[in-house]
Amino acid sequence: MSLKVEKEDLDLIMSVNEAITRLSEIEKIIIQSVYFEDKTVREIANELKISKSQVQRHKDAAIKKMQEKLLVKEKDTE
User: Fold this and answer.
1) Are 65 and 30 in contact (CB under 8 A)?
2) Spacing of C-alpha 32 from chain mean position
3) Shortest CA distance to 65 belongs to which of 16, 29, 14?
4) Burial of 15 (C-beta count, 10 Å sphere; 0-12/13-18/19+)
5) Phi/psi at 22 (nearest 5 deg)?
6) Greatest CA separation found in the chain?
7) Under 8 Å CB-to-CB from 4, ≥6 apart: which residues?
8) Are 48 and 39 in contact (CB under 8 A)?
9) Do residues 12 and 77 make contact, with C-beta atoms less than 8 angstroms apart?
10) If you write DSSP's letter for every residue of 28-68 in order, what string do you get?
11) Which pLDDT band holds residue 5 (cuts at 50, 70, 90)?
């Protein structure tokens, strides 16, 4: 099995990784838990001992930060 990654795909992966590194520690944990470990908001809330609404707020804030970072990066490359 060979893995062929196009330059554009690699650039996107690197940009997403850079955006993640700029998140707060709790935002990183939540993004990793939701998108890479397939955990529910309830599971994350229980693990972090915070409310589900706090998990959702942190998740929403993290996504907004990442979108802003990626949009700025996209504009810089145009």
Assistant:
1) no
2) 7
3) 16
4) middle
5) -85, -5
6) 43
7) none
8) no
9) no
10) HHHHIIIIIS---HHHHHHHHTS-HHHHHHHHHHHHHHHHH
11) low
Q: pLDDT tens digits for 8-38?
A: 788 888 888 899 999 999 999 999 999 999 9
**Which two tokens mark 53?**
């609404």
CA distance readout (Å), 4 to 10, 12, 28, 64:
10, 15, 28, 30
| Two tokens, residue 55 | 């998990």
Residue type, 69: K
Look up tokens 């850079």; give the residue: 18
